[in-house]
Design goal:
Number of domains: 1
Helix content: 25-40%
Order of helices and strands: HHEEHEEHEHEHEH
Strand order of the largest sheet: 1-3-4-2-5-6-7
Distance between the termini: 14 Å
Largest sheet: 7 strands, mixed
CATH class: Alpha Beta
Number of helices: 7
CATH superfamily: P-loop containing nucleotide triphosphate hydrolases
CATH architecture: 3-Layer(aba) Sandwich
Structural class: alpha/beta
Low-confidence stretches: 1-13, 73-77
Radius of gyration: 17 Å
Shape: globular
CATH topology: Rossmann fold
Length: 228
Amino acid sequence: MSETTQTQAPEMDGGEARRLFFARPWVFIRGVPAMKFLPPEGPPEVAFAGRSNVGKSSLINGIVGQKGLARTSNTPGRTQELNYFVPDGFSGEAGDLPPVAMVDMPGYGYAQAPKEQVDAWTKLVFDYLRGRATLKRVFVLIDARHGIKKNDADVMTLLDKAAVSYQIVLTKADKISALALPKLEAATREAIRKRPAAYPAIIATSSEKGFGIEEVQSAIAGFAEVKD
């Protein structure tokens, strides 16, 4: 982040620096089908993990306010690579790296694809989670209608063992009642209470209604050193 941006940001009120940061154009830079194709480690990375069709792409599009940045589909298993997104305007050369990169990960838990394809996706996800030094946080997306499933718990156990910080994001929270949501949040907090790498704050979101998006933006902005 440039010195100018760092000095200007604190003067902005009410999350203005964060808003401007995510309002700038973001671009897709690379799809990674295997670990050998990963970009060199550079800026901090935040990743989005979750079961197939949990709403990862929709959430990413909502975060940057661009409907078509991450591809969305009603077909589970559409995302088959690690898809990298960064704010536009950075060369990628030394000294001109983007302040943060967002990574849309292949969905897990999709049983309809051929087994060898599922195995390849699973290995890619797990290898990335275990071995990426610049990975600062994984947002583990949980469908509010279903809560934490075994696949989700398995991923959280892997993250605990790898000491990778993760935060639960409840998606599609508008699809359950206003009375059910606080109960789900409480149950989720209890489920992660003893997990060593789990960040305690849970974010309930709806990409369709737009709520919770600013909270996710603020978490990402912290790793990009953007003052909220």
